[in-house]
Amino acid sequence: MKIIKNFDLKKILNLNIGGKALFYAKVQNLPELEEILRWRKTKGVNLKILGKGTNILMQEGLFEELFLQINIDYIFPQDQILRVGAGTHLNRLIKFCVKNKLKGLETLWGIPASVGGAIVKNASTKWGEISERLSNIKVLDLKGKKFTIPKKMIPFSYRYSGIKDLVIYEAEFKLEKTKESLDEKIKNFFEYRRSTQPLEYKNSGCVFKNSLEFSAGELIENVGLKGYSIGKVSVSLKHANFFIVKEGARFSDFYNLMEFVKNKVKEKTGIELEPDLVIWKI
Ligand code: EPU
Hints:
By secondary structure, the chain is α+β, with helices and mostly antiparallel strands.
């Protein structure tokens, strides 16, 4: 097991904004994960878990914690049932499904996430959420004890799972055999997103959550904030719930823009926007 000290996390975070981890490790399999959790327990340091680092806004500075990146990557198929390592890229899993004519996860094509991260956030598009096809997850708690948690025990809702203080190392999905061309479907889903979202720029994905009553992008556009910038971060002109990040952007640019947008929307509409990003502050 290799633990790196003072690891620069910024370089592995999608936004390229962030600080250093006092301890950082990447685990490829369950024994490595168990070993590192034992090490953490003896040291008594707090733990933060990373998947692909795409949904995280991190402050600059030194975080005196252990940052653990889950790289456990495998797909074990048994007919329509897939057991998948939590570090597997969601797109790799979906490609596997498309190739093997397994229906159910294709609506999520193009979301840059690990399977574990996508489950914790209950990643979704308009057409579906990852929890719909999930059967169970295998986890370790912070003491290193293993559990299998069936889907019905997890309080999933829109972009929420309630999963906390647990490390997911495997997920099991039950899919449907199909004769349809899933290839065509993923192209269409992605085309909608490509034409409505600024995927051509470095961005954070959606910054705020929607609700049943509103779409955050629409609210932000309606209060006149498309194109508004603070420092090197600006509200996208294409989709107002995306922030575009220029080279050299700081945490404070992004965070202050979020606060500004939130306050303006609250003042003009009375609605309180909630972040969809994970924010790590010292
Ligand atoms: N809209 C505006 N102005 C904007 C953006 C959107 O008026 O600047 C309007 C659109 O015209 C549309 C409505 O708002 O009438 C909804 O917009 P869109 O179809 O783009 O979807 P969304 O609600 O903004 C959600 C998810 C996206 C997901 C898309 C497509 C959330 C917070 N966002 O966006 O997820 O890709 O549906 O399924 O749930 C993400 O997770 O990073 C993300 C972008």
